[in-house]
Amino acid sequence: MFTGLIQEKGIVKRFVRGEVSTLTVSSTRVASEIAQGDSVAVNGVCLTAKTIAGQELTFDAVRETIERSALGGLKPGDAVNLEVAARLGQMMGGHIVQGHVDGIATIARITALADSRVFRFACEAGILRYIVEKGSVAVDGISLTVASCDSTGFEVAVIPHTLDHTTLVDKRVGDKVNIETDILGKYVEKLLGARAGASSLTEEKLRGAGFM
């Protein structure tokens, strides 16, 4: 589990694509804090550290991960957001982020406001159903608050600190980003659906018994 507070921007060194792709990222802080086998969120995607050689981290990514995320578009020299897994007892500064990306969004508009920026993301209905105004969303692993949303996308306002310490500072219109919606909404939907289903079954049984 992660919190969406980025600890470092790493740099892609190598990306070997295949049935199982291998991603190598250079890092200073994160590389010194983890051990082989630990989880690291790379642009919001939970990956396992395969090897650690000095300041280089190597991760494997299966085809499902590449197809469901924007990792496949990375190339050497690109910056990536890095966050180590949350530890029990640490301050929860962002929100619950699993590192399980729901899909990809496209940057539709960037509006500069003094030192901050407002980003608008276009994405599919399957993602938007879990996006709510003032709710939380992870964009490339960054915990952000939804400023507004409609049937075609959503907007977030990004403060100067977040811009300076994440890859958002270099993003342009048309770029792809990973989106992970708030897990709480998914659980609520499933529980309410199960309750509605149970109510329907009860009504059918009562009708069958002649009580309705």
As a percent range, the share of strand residues is 35-45%
CATH class of the largest domain: Mainly Beta
Order of helices and strands: EEHEEEHEEEHEEEHEH
Strand order of the largest sheet: 1-2-5-4-3-6
Low-pLDDT windows of residues = none
The CATH architecture assignment of the largest domain turns out to be Beta Barrel
In whole angstroms, the N-to-C terminal distance is 48 Å
Explain this structure to me?
- The structure is a single chain.
- The chain is an alpha+beta fold and 212 residues long.
- It folds into 2 domains: 8-84, Elongation Factor Tu (Ef-tu), domain 3 (Beta Barrel); 103-188, Beta Barrel (Elongation Factor Tu (Ef-tu), domain 3), CATH 2.40.30.20.
- Helices cover 22% and strands 40% of the residues.
- The protein contains 5 helices and 12 strands.
- The protein has a 6-stranded antiparallel β-barrel. The chain has a 6-stranded antiparallel β-barrel with strand order 7-8-11-10-9-12.
- It is globular.
- 33% of the residues are buried.
Features:
12 strands; alpha+beta; six-stranded antiparallel beta barrel; Elongation Factor Tu (Ef-tu), domain 3; 2 domains; 212 residues; single chain
Q: Nutshell version of this structure?
A:
This protein is an alpha+beta fold and 212 residues long. It contains 5 helices and 12 strands. It folds into 2 domains: 8-84, Elongation Factor Tu (Ef-tu), domain 3 (Beta Barrel), CATH 2.40.30; 103-188, Elongation Factor Tu (Ef-tu), domain 3, CATH 2.40.30.
